[in-house]
């Protein structure tokens, strides 16, 4: 099993090295076409990895799939593991979309130049991998030892879904940015202007944080807050740490690539928050009533969950499009 983890981490290290060292060696503002190209690349990698998961778990390569999954009490064969990976990938992608909007607001408020935003997002990925990896490791141990913790996670997700409907991304961003920025400025000297793509600068023999460093800390903090919601959600699907972690990583890579295309468009999806709140509630209810759902749907429960999540997200997108269809364009006579 250690070789499977080592191989995956090495693969991600190569992908990130190519990203920063080759494709984005020079600071620049990625175009929509470039963002969509890299997004398509991450989606292709995720689908290809699902195929690899299928064969690896079917043949139990490197010990994968030998342990009993604490969530459903089954051993993950190739088909079950691939479905769980893809379901986890879609769940993490959907629940992290609101995070993209919050990050866009952070960059807007701090006036981070577009050409430097990719650098913040890149280093944010590294922090997210460490934080989420730690949370997943702890969560997997809790689920394995105390199965009742899934009921706690389920109730928390339903509560979070209700709370999400009652708050806006702007309110979440203001709350996080306020106390984090105050804490940083109280404990560290911070410059008033950007110094190209540097996070630290030395002025008059003294080291200062730049506003870019403040943006990085805020991005990491918001990712941690959103992970508190999204990590428990994936434990409704599987407690296999390898499937949980890999689906999280591919979701993070995809959304970071999609950021430059999605940040401006996400405001047009007026029912996005409703869709995400429903996803959280559905996943939470699946946790709370897992035994009944398993009896009713059998081993295909995760496949049906994946389908329901797709319907909710597509339904939210279609409803947003229909709501804006008859809306007059800005500046046009009413």
Can you give a write-up of this model?
With 334 residues, the chain is mainly α. The protein has one domain (2-323). Helices cover 74% and strands 2% of the residues. It is built from 11 helices and 2 strands; from the N terminus they run ααααααββααααα. It has helices at 2-23, 32-59, 78-110, 114-145, 149-165, 169-187, 211-234, 241-262, 272-288, 290-297, 301-325, and strands spanning 200-203, 206-209. It has a two-stranded antiparallel sheet. Strand 1 (200-203) and strand 2 (206-209) form a beta hairpin. Helix 3 (78-110) runs antiparallel to helix 9. The protein is globular, with a radius of gyration of 21 Å. It starts with a helix and ends in a 9-residue tail after the last helix. The model has no long low-confidence stretch (mean pLDDT 85).
């Amino acid at each position: 099993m250690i070789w499977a983890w080592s191989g995956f981490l090495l693969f991600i290290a190569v992908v990130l090295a190519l990203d920063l060292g080759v494709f984005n060696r020079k600071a620049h503002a990625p175009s929509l076409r470039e963002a969509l190209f890299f997004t398509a690349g991450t989606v292709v990698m995720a689908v290809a990895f699902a195929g690899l998961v299928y064969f690896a778990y079917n043949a139990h390569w490197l010990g994968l799939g030998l342990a009993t999954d604490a969530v459903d009490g089954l051993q993950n064969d190739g088909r079950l593991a691939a479905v769980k990976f893809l379901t986890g990938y879609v769940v993490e992608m959907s629940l992290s979309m609101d995070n993209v909007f919050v990050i866009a607001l952070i960059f807007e408020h701090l006036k981070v130049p577009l050409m430097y935003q990719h650098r913040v997002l890149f280093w944010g990925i590294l922090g997210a991998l460490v934080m989420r990896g730690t949370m997943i490791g702890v969560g997997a141990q809790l689920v394995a030892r105390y199965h009742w913790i899934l009921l706690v996670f389920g109730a928390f997700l339903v509560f979070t879904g209700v709370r999400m409907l009652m708050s806006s991304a702007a309110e979440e961003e203001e709350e996080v940015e306020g106390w984090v920025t105050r804490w940083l400025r109280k404990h560290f000297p911070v410059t008033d202007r950007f110094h190209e793509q540097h996070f630290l600068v030395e002025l008059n023999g003294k080291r200062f944080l730049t506003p870019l460093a403040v943006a990085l800390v805020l991005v990491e903090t918001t990712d941690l807050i959103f992970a508190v919601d999204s990590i428990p959600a994936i434990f409704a699907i599987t407690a296999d740490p390898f499937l949980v972690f890999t689906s999280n990583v591919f979701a993070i890579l995809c959304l970071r690539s999609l950021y430059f295309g999605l940040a401006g468009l996400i405001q047009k999806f007026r029912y996005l928050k409703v869709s995400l709140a429903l996803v959280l509630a559905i996943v939470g209810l699946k946790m709370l009533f897992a035994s009944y759902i398993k009896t009713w749907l059998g081993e295909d429960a995760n496949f049906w969950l994946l389908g329901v999540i797709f319907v909710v997200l597509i339904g939210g997108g279609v409803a947003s499009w229909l709501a804006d269809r008859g809306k007059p364009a800005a500046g046009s006579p009413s």
